[in-house]
Amino acid sequence: MATELEEPTRRDFLVTAGNVFAAVGAASLLWPFIQQMNPDSSAQALASTEVDLTPVKEGQAITAMWRGKPVFIRHRTKDEIAKAAADDKAALVDLSARNLGLPETEPALDANRVKKGHEQWLILVGICTHLGCIPKGQSMQDVKGEYGGWFCPCHGSHYDTSGRIRKGPAPRNLDVPPYEFASDTMIKIG
Amino acid sequence: MSAHESSYNPTTRWGKWWDDRLPVARMMHGQFVDFPTPRNLNYAWTFGGILTFCLVAQIVTGVVLAMHYQPSAAEAFNSIEHIRRDVNYGWMIRNFHAVGASMFFIAVYIHIFRGLYYGSYKAPREVLWILGVLIFVAMMATAFMGYALPWGQMSFWGVTVITNLFSALDGVVSGLGTGITEWLWGGYAVTGVTLNRFFSLHYLLPFVIFGLVILHIWALHVAGQNNPTGLDVKTKSDTVPMYPYAVAKDAVGMFAFLLLFAWFVFFLPDYLGHADNYTPANPLVTPPHIVPEWYFLPFYAILRAVPSKLGGVIAMFAAVLVLLFVPWLDSSRVRSTKYRPIYKWCFWFFVFTCVALGWLGSKPAEQPYVFWSQFFTFAYFAFFFIALPVVGLIETPRVLPRSISESVLGRSSGGGVGVPVGAAAAPEKR
Fold it and tell me: N or C: which end of chain B has fewer CB within 10 A?
C-alpha cells in the first residue's frame, strides 16, 4: 500500500543523483565533439592584411582579401562623397553604421563609415548582406545600381555611395571592417 | 533470429503501432533485456561490450578527425599538428583515437584469450569464432593503414616494410610479387598515392567490421553465451536476464577499462607510440629500428624469426590464420580449461609465448633475440598443432559440476535449483 506522501528513500536519492551525474558526464563528453567544428584558432588568428592605396586613382576601386573575404576599397570622387553625406537624411533601410571598428549603436551616417580626414576612402566587406553574393560596382563598366554604389545581381539589392542598403532584399548595410591608416597610402585591415 | 523468444508486450498505442510495422523494440527487448545469460559469467565476459564501445569510439573520433585531416604527402603531417594545436579539443580527440586503437587491441587480445581458455570456439560456436577471427584480421588491416596516416618516419617505413612483404611472391611466380606490391603502392615506391588510398580504406574498413560484429553478435545469440564451466545451459535457473545483471556487470567492466583508457589519453598519450613518428616521413632516411605498434609485435617477431623471406611471410600469415582452425584442432571433449589440468599449463605457456614474442619483436634482429624468436615461434605453432590436438586425447579432465546452477549455488537436494543451504535472504520475488 504505497502512500503518496512517503519520504524519498535512499534509493531514490542514489538513482536521481546517478542520473544527474550521467547527464553531466554525457554533456561534457559531447561538447568537445560539437566545439571542434567551430572555427579553430588558426582561423581565429587575427590575420591582418596590408593594402597599398597608391595605385587606386580617384573614381577607381580595388578588391582585397581579408580573412577569406573580399574587401571593397573605393577611392570616392567628390560627387560620391557629397551624395553619401546628403543621403544621411534619406529614409534608410538599415539605421546602424555597421562599422566593426565602432560600437553597434552608431547611426548609419557616412561619417561613421569612413575615417576622419580620409573620407575619400570607402572600405567595405564586399559580401551582400542578403545571401552572400559579391555585389557589382568595383569596375568602371559595372552596373552600380540606382544609388551609384553597388548592385547585387543575385537578387537585386542596391547599395549607395556609402555602401548602405537602399533598395532590395538585403537587410543590412555593407559591413565596414576594422582598419587603420598606417600612412596616407597604406591601410592595415584587421 | 535466435532461440530466445521475446517476451515484449507493448502497452502503449505508439508501442503497438511500431511493433506491427518494424518490431525493433521487440528485438531489442528479446536480445538485450530479457535474454537469458549464464549466471556464472565472470569479468572476462565484459570485453565483448567493451570492444563494441571501442569500435563506436574509434568511428566517432575518426569521422571527426577526418574533418580536419589532409591525406596528401605534403599536408598529412602538418594537418595532424594543426589538429593537435589549432582545432578546438583536437588534441583530445586525436589522443582518444590513437590511444583508442591500442585499447581496442588490449581488449581484443583479452577477449581472444578468454575464448581460448573457456573453449568458447567449440561446437556450436565455430562460426561465431571464425567471425571473430575475421574481425581481428580486419582490425589489423585498419590499424595498419591508420598508422600510415600521420605520415611520420615510422608510418612511412612501416608501410614500406610490410607492403614489401608481397614481393616475396616473386619467388613463387616471377614478377607476381613486384606486380602486387606496385599495385598496392600505386607507384614504384610508397608515396602520397599510397597514403591517399590507405585513408580511403581506413575510413571504409571499420564499417565492414561493424557488419561483421553484427553477424558475430547474431551468431552469439543463437548459441547463447558460453560460461566459465563450459557446461550448456540446461534449466532456466542456470541463467539470469541480461538486464539488469549482465548489463550491470558490463558497466563495471567498462568503467574500469575507461579508467585505464583515460589514464593514457590524459597523462601518457604518446607512451604506446613511437617517438620517430613525430619526425616527418623521409623516403631517403631509414630509421635505425623500424618497429610496428606494440599490438603487431608478436607477429613481427614471427616474421623475422624465419630466415627465408617468403618463409617469414608465410609464417606470419599462418600465425593469424591458424586461429580459424582452432575449433577443429582441439580434440578435447571438455570445453573449459578450468577442468583440464594438463592443458592449463599449455595455455598459460602459450600466453607467455605471445608476450615473449611481443617483447622480442621490439628488439633488433640480432642474437640472442633471433634464437629466442625462433624458439617461441616454434612454441607458438606447437600450441596449435601439438597441444590442442594431443592433450585433449591424453588428459583426464577434472570432475565437472552437474550444472551451471550447481557450480554457483552449491549442491542442494535435487541439484541445481533452489536456495543455498543456510541462506538468510528470501528467494528473489519477480
Answer: C
Q: Quick one: pLDDT band at residue B414, thresholds 50, 70, 90?
A: very low
Using an 8 Å CB-CB cutoff, list chain A residues near B100.
none
**What are all long-range contacts of B261-270, with beta carbons under 8 Å and residues at least 24 apart?**
B261/B99, B261/B100, B261/B103, B264/B99, B264/B102, B264/B103, B265/B92, B265/B95, B265/B96, B265/B99, B266/B95, B269/B95, B269/B98, B269/B99
Q: pLDDT by residue (tens digit) across B80-137?
A: 999 999 999 999 999 999 999 999 999 999 999 999 999 999 999 999 999 999 999 9
Q: Say which DSSP state B122 is in.
A: S
Which chain B residues contact residue A47 at CB under 8 A? none
Q: Residue A35 and residue B64: Cβ atoms within 8 Å?
A: no
Cα–Cα distance list, B362 to A104, B359, B365 (Å): 63, 5, 9
ipTM rounded to 2 decimals: 0.79
| Partners of A186 in the β-ladder | A52, A183
Residues listed for chain B: 430
Chain A nearest-CA distance from B258, in A, is 13
> How confident is the prediction along chain A (190 residues), in pLDDT tens digits per residue?
555 668 889 999 999 999 999 999 999 999 999 999 988 887 776 567 889 999 999 999 999 988 888 999 999 999 999 999 998 888 888 988 899 888 878 888 999 999 999 999 999 999 999 999 999 999 988 889 999 999 999 999 999 999 999 999 999 999 999 999 999 899 999 8
Chain A residues with CB under 8 Å of B86 CB are: 40-43
Instruction: Express each pLDDT in A37-91 by its tens digit.
Output: 988 887 776 567 889 999 999 999 999 988 888 999 999 999 999 999 998 888 8
Q: Which residue has the cell 532456466?
A: B236
How far apart CA B176 and CA B166 sit, in angstroms, is 9
In the block, residue with C-alpha cell 605498434: B293
CA distance B87 to chain A (A): 5
Q: What is the pTM of this model?
A: 0.85
How far apart CA B71 and CA B81 sit, in angstroms, is 13
DSSP assignment of B179-239: HHHHHHHTSSS--HHHHHHHHHHHHHHHHHHHHHHHHHHHHHHHH----TT-PPP-SGGGE
Residue with cell 613518428: B277
- Chain B, residues 390-429, CB within 8 A of chain A, namely none
Judge: A40–B88 Cβ closer than 8 Å, yes or no.
Answer: yes
The three grid cell numbers given for residue B388, joined into one nine-digit string = 590442442
